[in-house]
Write a structure and sequence with these properties.
With 381 residues, the chain is an alpha+beta fold. The chain is built from 10 helices and 14 strands. Strand 3 and strand 4 form a beta hairpin. It is elongated and about 80 Å long.
Length: 381
């Protein structure tokens, strides 16, 4: 059933008498037009790009039934018009990533969309985001709904940012996407430092594969990791607004879903056998890279240089995987996915976290992109 467009505070959907404007799941026969509208200014040929997107969607795990649009069905038998679009892609850990259309191409604004006021265009974009959030929060059959909706915008996408905020989303600090090329040469190169760091008194750093080989069960390891994550969130400066928005089990599931999960590249940090931090890497063969998914320490072991030593230790493992081992590089553990290519090591950091930014710059990371994260909690379960 079509949902009639019109929400408190959004005004009339269209100044034309009798205009049929509604927010609905995109009809199957209009998916090409909706995808072209969604891609907007990102490509010189939206229709061709939209066709490629539709063909690849099943392989990418994108459910096209989760694409909503503001549909204008003019009177007198004219063809319906896709005015704004929002696509929701369900992820692990009960999350949903939302993508929304931006301003229409200049040539389409009058010929297809009509001379809509900017306020009406904004109201439609808010409405289609709200419907997408409602759709993914409800779940399908026995599958639970999403608990967290999010979007990663480019800094120039100001119209989309305003729409997400008016749809109840919260803007976090900008995310800096960093990359470190491997191998590193020159001063501070891999071979300049000892292969095995000396950890502070009472600190142990063990991979999950090591813990498993010692006889610890998956349930025990997950419990320790959950505690380590919770400890690292205390007074964190890295997207602190996210704390408490999701259950820790959902967060752990999301981390595991990045790239190829390799227990040899997940490390648990303990202090006198209490979990106080962790460092998690994932192999991403499609990008010929390795991603530092998470690095966090609890407050009682911060400020001792452990973050820097831990990062250097992890980089050495990745370096051993990606290239021929340099002098002093630790050998890779058997059974892990191999990495070859120039994708290097990547991570994302909240730019407000000055200490982390300094840490990564010192370790040879350089910024290559910036995104604006928007998040909204869905439901109460």
């Amino acid at each position: 059933m079509a949902t009639v467009f019109g929400m408190p505070g959004l005004g009339s959907p269209d100044p034309r008498p009798g205009a049929g404007v509604s927010v609905v799941p995109v009809p199957a026969d209009l998916r090409l037009a909706a995808a072209a509208r969604l891609l907007g200014e990102q490509t010189p040929d939206p229709l061709a790009a939209a066709q490629r997107f539709l063909e690849s969607a099943p392989e990418l795990g994108i459910d096209l039934d989760r694409m909503w649009c503001v549909l204008d069905t003019p009177a007198r038998g004219r063809s319906p018009i896709i005015r704004n679009v929002c696509l929701a892609v369900l992820g692990t850990g009960r999350t949903a990533m939302l993508f929304v259309s931006g301003p229409a191409r200049r040539g389409l604004r009058t010929s297809l969309l009509g001379a809509k006021p900017a306020a009406l265009d904004h109201a439609e974009r808010v409405a289609v985001i709200l419907h997408a959030c409602e759709g993914v929060a409800g779940g399908v059959g026995s599958a639970p709904g999403a608990r967290l909706a999010q979007s990663l915008l480019e800094p120039k996408e100001s119209e989309a940012a305003k729409a997400f905020i008016d749809a109840g989303f919260m803007k976090l600090g900008d995310l800096a996407y960093l990359r470190r090329r491997l191998p590193r040469t020159g001063p501070g190169a891999m071979s300049d430092a000892p292969a095995t760091p000396t950890w502070p008194s009472g600190v142990r750093v063990r991979s999950l594969s090591e813990l498993s080989n010692q006889g610890h069960t998956p349930a025990e390891i997950d419990s320790w990791l959950s505690t380590a994550l919770e400890q690292s969130y205390i007074e964190t400066r890295d997207c602190p607004e996210l704390c408490g928005l999701r259950q820790i089990g959902d967060v752990l599931e999301s981390h595991r879903a990045v790239g190829i999960h390799d227990p040899a590249l997940w490390w648990l940090v303990t202090l006198h056998d209490r979990p106080v931090g962790c460092m998690l890497f994932a192999v991403c063969p499609e990008h010929q890279s390795v991603e530092l998914v998470y690095l966090g320490l609890g407050p009682e072991i911060r400020g001792q240089g452990l973050g820097s030593a831990l990062l250097d230790f992890g980089v050495r493992r990745v370096h051993a995987m990606a290239v021929e081992p340099a002098v002093g590089a630790l050998p890779p553990e058997p059974g892990h996915p191999s990495v070859s290519g120039s994708g290097g090591l990547t991570c994302a950091v909240d730019t407000r976290n000055a200490a982390a930014m300094r840490l990564y710059r010192k370790a040879g990371f350089e910024r290559f992109a910036t995104r604006v994260p928007m998040v909204r909690r869905l439901g109460t379960s």
